Amino acid sequence: YGTGIWMLEYNPADPQRPDPLMGWAGSGDTRRQLNLKFPTLEAAKAYADKNGIDYTVVPAAPKVLKLQAYADNFR
Fold this sequence. Notes:
By secondary structure, the protein is of the alpha+beta class. The protein has one helix spanning 41-50, and strands at residues 6-9, 17-18, 25-26, 35-38. It has one domain (6-74). It has one helix and four strands.
């Protein structure tokens, strides 16, 4: 997702289990499909606090750029 966007994802309530006919993994937990996006961390925290949702902030991993020249592709 774009920079500066914070997401609220629910923890799964039920474990996934394979469907006996198709073999796909699924569960009856519909909150697993729900992702809420917020413009700031404070807005996400305020929503979670207002609705009584426990949360854990997981910051994005720092991006490491590998700088190289085009000629390095032919070495």
